[in-house]
Amino acid sequence: MANLPEFNxxxxxxxxxxxxxxxxxxxxxxxxxxxxxxxxxRPDARTLKCVVKPSFxxxxxxxxLTISLSDLQPPRAATLHIVGQGIGAALxxxxxxxIEPHDRGTRLTWHARIDRAGGLMATxxxxxxxxxxxxxIRQGWRQVRERLACQ
Length: 151
What we know:
Strand content: over 45%
Structural class: alpha+beta
Radius of gyration: 15 Å
Number of strands: 7
Largest sheet: 7 strands, antiparallel
Shape: globular
């Protein structure tokens, strides 16, 4: 589907690259940053399986997510692949993170794209999907910042 939205951005953090890399590749930290999380488990060191009940107007179904880490290049880069399945809904997302020193902290540049949307997700207009994703992304980065502040 050519109309699926892509997302990218840059986030600045007041921590060293090694600490930020550890936080964004820590699946427990990632689970804490997932909005509407119902449950989570880690079947292995690079996989998080969770259940979410999104509060989006266009999707009331529970989704089972599998989040996999790959291409880990500490402390510079990582890739996440997310597969979501629910009754009448499916979604696949790829995301890459690049981390570099910046001033006295770290710059994280990220890119995400929806590779596939099926079922109900395929009928959601790209603008509505992008708006919902932007909300989740902002909330996720806020959670990562809060987690880093507590460490």
